[in-house]
Amino acid sequence: MDKYIKSLILAVALLLFMASNTVYSAQKDVLLQTTSTWDNAHYKKLKIKNPEVTVLKINIGVGESLPMHKHDLVNIAYVKHGTLTVITDKDDQITLTEGQCLPELVGKYHYGKNTGDVPVELVVFYIGEKGTPLSVNK
């Protein structure tokens, strides 16, 4: 019986060792972690009583621009394809390419323009008070 228990303990230890060394193919990369928008304006304390999350896919054709607009909620854009230049009404700008994230401006007018040679595909994540417009045109 003693030999049986020792063999059982050895088998369990071997299984635990193998399970703890399992190799998974899933990987994670932090694409963005920030406390401010791209122009270094820090996020204010968020007071959201009825939070709503919206995710949009936005396509912008070659040479096209979005209208001048602002956001009154926090949003992050992920550039899935293409080259996007974001320009403020003060002519500050930033250019992003495929795979980059943009912590969008809050309460400041700006627009996005496709400055590359392929269509831009964005995935934009918004979080704010339920019912808040995602953007307001100027």
Write structural notes for this entry:
This protein is mainly beta and 138 residues long. The protein contains one helix and nine strands, in the order H-E-E-E-E-E-E-E-E-E. The protein has a four-stranded antiparallel beta sheet with strand order 1-8-3-6, with no helix packed on it. It starts with a helix and ends with a strand.
Unreliable stretches (pLDDT < 50, length at least 5) are none
Q: What percent of residues adopt helix (DSSP H or I)?
A: 10-25%
How is the biggest beta sheet arranged? Answer: 4 strands, antiparallel
Morphology call: extended
Class by SSE composition: mainly beta
What portion of residues belong to β-strands?
A: 35-45%
Q: Give the N-terminus to C-terminus distance in angstroms.
A: 82 Å
Task: Determine and state the CATH class of the domain at 51-137.
Answer: Mainly Beta
What do we call the CATH homologous superfamily of the domain at 51-137?
A: Jelly Rolls
Order of helices and strands: HEEEEEEEEE
How many E-type strands? Answer: 9
- Average pLDDT level: 88
Radius of gyration: 24 Å
Secondary structure tally, helices: 1
Quaternary structure type: single chain
